[in-house]
Amino acid sequence: MYFVTVSEMFGTNGEKIAREAAKILGYPFYGKEELFKAADEMGLLHDVEKVQLKSPPLLEKFFSDKPKIYLDRFQSVIYEVAKKGNALFFGKGSQLLLQSFDCALHVLVLGSLEKRITRVMEGNKVEREVAEKMIHTSDHDKRGFLRYAFDQDWLNPQLYDLLLNTDTLSIDSAVKIIVDAAKAEEIKACGTEAVKRLGQFSLQRKIGSALLEAGVMSLNLFFTVEDIDSVRLFGVVDSREEREGVVNILKKIKGIKKIKNDLTVASDQAA
Question: Is 216-270 in the same CATH topology as 3-182?
Fold first, then answer.
């Protein structure tokens, strides 16, 4: 299987290019609505809908775990979708989530501010001032989201294999470049090991969000996903009841078949 991720600077026709490339490649297209549909099928739509693809407000970021919980569940949806096979993802941090896979091609569609303003004005039937505000808001939100979620600059060229400037490239030309690159021999098909890693990444996000939501995640509690269905707990908890409670939380997570409990109870250590 293969993956393509396409990110865009708003006003560059990136989504049109991505959809057409997916159509020619025969890959399912996953933008916001498609990922929400997948989340609904997994029973996660309620949480995923609350993900704001921008940095959360300062107070919420520092005094609430909710942004992190929603983000973890949203990312688990992307990993679960990727496990199914060939796919083209449009933004949403997919270029970072699938960065470590040799079977993924990462594309950024960009352009000059002036050309972007012109396209937004024409496409949305708005005045220049409004178009500039729309572009500024989009750029700001994307920058904030990638910083919060991955501590990365979304315009870092090292995150991408292709940078396509639609100031000079037409939609058809950009699509052809993506399709040709996706079919290049250098893009290797994902093997079974990659599918296993996707499953582990997905499970890791699910566990993290479940422990955060239950309020038991602490500086002394740790877990590792040792296999696609196997988890190890370790660290220190305050009581045997808390130790049992953490295990029960994991037992409710779909996909976990084996839990190795190496948690230590603080009172037992003291004794």
Answer: no
**What is the second-level CATH architecture of the domain 216-270?**
2-Layer Sandwich (3.30)
DSSP string covering 17-58, please?
HHHHHHHHHTPPEE-HHHHHHHHHHTT-HHHHTT--SSPPPH
The residue behind tokens 């609904």 is 40
pTM here? Answer: 0.82
pLDDT, residue 64, reads 41
- Using an 8 Å Cβ cutoff, are 171 and 17 in contact? yes
Nearest one of 202, 195, 191 to 84, comparing CA atoms = 195
How far is Cα 174 from Cα 184, in angstroms, rounded to an integer? Answer: 16
- Please tell me which residue, 44 or 146, carries the higher pLDDT value: 146
Of the pLDDT bands very low, low, confident and very high (cuts 50, 70, 90), residue 138 is very high
Residue closest to 189 by CA, chosen among 250, 104, 126, 255: 104
3-182 is classed in which CATH architecture? 3-Layer(aba) Sandwich (3.40)
**CA 31 – CA 260 distance, rounded (Å):** 37
pLDDT above 80: residue 60: no
How do the domains of the chain map onto residue ranges?
3-182, 216-270
Q: What's the Rg (C-alpha) of the chain?
A: 21
**How many H-runs (helices) and E-runs (strands) does the chain carry?**
12, 8
Angle at 250 between CA 245 and CA 251, to 5 degrees: 95
Instruction: Locate 189 and state its tokens.
Output: 């098909």
